Amino acid sequence: MSRLRDRVAIVTGAGRGLGRSYALRLAREGAKVVVNDLGGGLHGERGDGTPADDVVREIREAGGQAIANGDDVADWEGAHRLVQAALDAFGDVDVLINNAGILRDRMLVNMTEQEWDDVVRVHLRGHFCPTRAVAAHWRARAKENPGPRDAVLIHTTSISGLFGSPGQANYASAKSGIATFAYECHLELNERLGVRSYAIGPSARTRLTESSPAAVEAVAKPEAGFDFFDPDNVSPFVVWLASAGCGAPSGTVYTVEGDEVTVVQPWTRGPRIKAGDSRWTLEQLDQAWPELFGQAGAHA
Ligand SMILES: NC(=O)c1ccc[n+]([C@@H]2O[C@H](COP(=O)([O-])OP(=O)(O)OC[C@H]3O[C@@H](n4cnc5c(N)ncnc54)[C@H](O)[C@@H]3O)[C@@H](O)[C@H]2O)c1
């Protein structure tokens, strides 16, 4: 029950759903938790911060330590206030879980500019701003106090972002970008600052999935047996990644659903053709492409 004793964790969008489950589980394992949530409506409209306060109350009643923060994670100043709140309350930050999210599903031909911008903002910018704020703190900390650290970033991608999903061009594009962002964080922060960076694509029954007519039946609670889509099934893996000394290689991406964790294999270069020290002609390409795609097979 004390895997995360003395660690400070920020969880964004932790007033509900998956983030709430992570925050409660982190606190049970001894972490001091900053529960961020702007208390937004399903489509990202501002609320009253109540869900974050409720989670903090639940953690404290169980004997844990937590504070609430109601900032918008996609707001530059707000994200800096969030990290500062952790430093003021607990003196440091060891773990940032970027989880806050919204949906505005619509087929591409009907999607509005606002629907595109809102989703890309909350997810992609909402990952960048808190990460940027905490990374600046980690760099300053490393300068003041060189030595091994074990800081952790856990970002939230999704199966739509990794494999595509009709009606979610905004969401899938942002989530795909987040998987790449996780790898970028690994490249820039792992060796230099000792930060491990991961992305997970969860599946769970939350307000988000229950709002989607396509998903609501699929994630329903069964009358008996293992409740595959309970958000609490995702938390152990997230808490394990966040724990000090966890050996999961930095820069990796996972799907986490029910009782299953899958490593997602990254983009790789496939078969190739070469023109031979000269620029391709269109006629040569006419000739060569069947060979290229023949080699690539189903992977193309
Ligand atoms: N539930 C799933 O099956 C599933 C699948 C794939 C990915 N995800 C991702 O998991 C994350 C959590 O989703 P969930 O299903 O728990 O949804 P949820 O709606 O239950 O919780 C998301 C929380 O984020 C908060 N939030 C939204 N915008 C915010 C902002 N700008 N700043 C601060 N807080 C904000 C909301 O108020 C809400 O409480 C999201 O990133 C989502 O895209 C979920």
TrEMBL record:
SUPFAM superfamilies: NAD(P)-binding Rossmann-fold domains
Keyword Oxidoreductase attached: yes
Keyword terms, alphabetized: Oxidoreductase
Domain Ketoreductase residues, every copy: 7-203
Keyword presence, Oxidoreductase: yes
UniProt GO MF annotations: oxidoreductase activity
Domain of life: Bacteria
Family designation: Belongs to the short-chain dehydrogenases/reductases (SDR) family.
Protein name: Putative short-chain dehydrogenase/reductase
